[in-house]
Automatic annotation (TrEMBL):
Protein name in UniProt: Protein kinase domain-containing protein
GO molecular function, one term: ATP binding
Record-linked Gene3D superfamilies: Transferase(Phosphotransferase) domain 1
Domain of life: Eukaryota
Protein kinase domain residues: 138-485
Pfam families according to UniProt: ABC1
InterPro entries: ABC1_dom, Kinase-like_dom_sf, Mito_struct-func_regulator, Prot_kinase_dom
Length: 485
């Protein structure tokens, strides 16, 4: 009997030690793999510098990106958690990441390991204080999908004909993801001192803050209700669908909400092919324009008019519903901008839309973006950097962002300080740009947001000589949404 007890105690101790060492093991795995990928690129940069033929250089870069993509895939697949969030950001920005990375990593999008059902049941019943059979008429054991922080199940409440979605947090995920983020912060500090003259550390600090919020589903429920109310109050018809929360079935780790039927935006092309729609035809083009129109209008209003916005529009959070309606899911990452930053960003939007380098410089100062110039034409490069960072349409001659390139604006204009709050806008714009690239539409969100920015500044008494009739006319033109390629 004592032998069984001692074996049991030993197993329990073994599990506790394993749990304690898990963050250290993850850290070791990250640094070994990150160092391998980084040094691979640095050695390659030296090697390719001796090659004079441009076409050969391009081919060599493509091969290097493919090798790195395989290593990044292996690291993110093995470690999961936070690194699956990194994957979502990479595939959401095909203009920012090499094509080889996007092509390889897109297959990881739906590969977050699901928590076994007994684990889901334990969390759900502990959080809601009732058994599954007491709350739900039916509950699908197999999840609709699993992401880095939680997984979702389709279910139906007792006495209700409509289906709901039940979001349940993975047990023990918070500590592991915080470990991953701190490792990334240390890597960012090194990169900004050696290779990229940009305040990357502030970016990762904002990531830490935002992802920390994602573990509180009550906060997410409040955000979803606030954005739902704002969009439906400020439009005859909301530009995007926002799920309704089942308020009495929300807790810190469980959230029940309205089920919205639709297809993920990444599968839009496959769905069109199934229905015999030519992806390059007029019908497909009209559908894609409607999708981008809806998202752009919703984000313009949220960021510039309200200041409270959904800050995670990666492809996994966007559903396309009947009639090209767009549903925006997952409100774990939201941002509430102070009025000073909201109005400062409205000024920057006007500077980009008007192609005005002087106004861009003024906006940088107002927003608290600290820069040091390493070039003669500082004003033009500052505008170019603003267009690169904060507009969906890249500046002339820029096909994708290459921060290591000597011709890059980030090389010419070092960004020494960057307010953490602005990172959420930067990230949102880049994800919108990624969606536009994926849909094959090149447009400027700054031009489309101009009337909303003017309205925000006018209402704050900061737009001198503004004509109200002119402003209303511009707003109506936005609703027609003229695309400018």
């Amino acid at each position: 009997m004592s032998g069984i007890a001692s074996r049991f105690d030993f197993k329990e101790i073994q599990e506790k030690v394993s749990l304690h060492l898990r963050p250290w093991h993850r850290s070791f795995q990250f640094w070994v793999r990150a160092a391998d990928i980084y040094t691979g690129y640095k050695v390659f940069q030296v090697r390719v510098s001796f090659v004079k033929d441009v076409q050969k250089q391009h081919a060599m870069w493509e091969r290097q990106h493919e090798l790195a993509a395989d290593k990044i895939y292996a690291m993110c697949s093995d470690l999961g958690g936070f690194f699956l969030k990194v994957v979502a950001q990479i595939i959401g920005k095909p203009d920012l990441a090499p094509a080889a990375w996007v092509k390889k990593l897109v297959t990881l999008c739906d590969q977050a390991p699901a928590t076994p059902f007994d684990g889901v049941q334990h969390v759900l019943e502990k959080e809601l204080g009732q058994s599954i059979s007491e709350i739900f008429e039916k509950f699908d054991v197999n999840p609709l999908g699993s992401a880095s922080i939680a997984q979702v199940h389709r279910a139906r409440l007792k006495g209700n004909k409509n289906d709901v979605v039940v979001k349940v947090q993975h047990p023990g995920i918070q500590e592991l993801m915080m470990t991953d983020i701190r490792n990334l912060q240390a890597f960012a500090l090194y990169m900004q001192k050696t290779d990229i003259k940009f305040d990357l550390y502030s970016v990762t600090k904002e990531m830490e803050t935002q992802i920390g919020y994602e573990f509180d589903f009550l906060r997410e429920a409040n955000a979803m209700e606030r954005i739902h109310h704002f969009l439906y109050e400020n439009n005859r018809k909301s530009p995007v669908l926002v799920p309704r929360v089942v308020r009495d079935l929300a807790s810190r780790r469980v959230l029940v909400m309205e089920y919205i039927d639709g297809i993920p935006i990444l599968k839009l092309g496959d769905e069109m092919a199934k229905r015999g729609i030519n992806p390059g035809g007029k019908m497909a083009a009209a559908a894609k324009q409607n999708i981008l129109k809806s998202l752009t209008l919703a984000y313009g209003q949220m960021i510039l008019k309200s200041g409270f916005f959904h800050a995670d529009p990666h492809p996994g959070n966007i559903l396309i519903c009947k009639g090209s309606e767009v549903a925006l899911l997952d409100y774990g990452q939201v941002k509430d901008l102070p009025d000073q930053l909201r109005l400062g960003y409205a000024n920057l939007v006007l500077a980009i839309a008007d192609n005005d380098p002087v106004k861009a410089m003024e906006s940088y100062r107002e927003l608290g973006i600290g820069t040091v110039s390493n070039c003669g034409n500082e004003q033009q490069e500052l505008l170019r950097l603003a267009q690169t960072m904060f507009d969906t349409k890249l500046p002339p001659g820029v096909v994708m962002l290459q921060p290591f390139s000597e011709d890059s604006s980030i090389k010419k204009i070092a960004v020494e300080s960057f307010p953490e709050e602005l990172f959420s806008i930067l990230r949102t714009v880049h994800l919108l740009r990624g969606l536009s690239v994926g849909l094959g539409i090149n447009f400027s969100c700054a031009e489309q947001w101009r009337p909303i920015a003017e309205e925000a500044l006018y209402n704050a008494g900061r737009l001198k000589g503004a004509n109200r009739k002119s402003r209303v006319r511009k707003l109506s033109s936005f609703r027609r949404f003229t695309w400018r390629n």
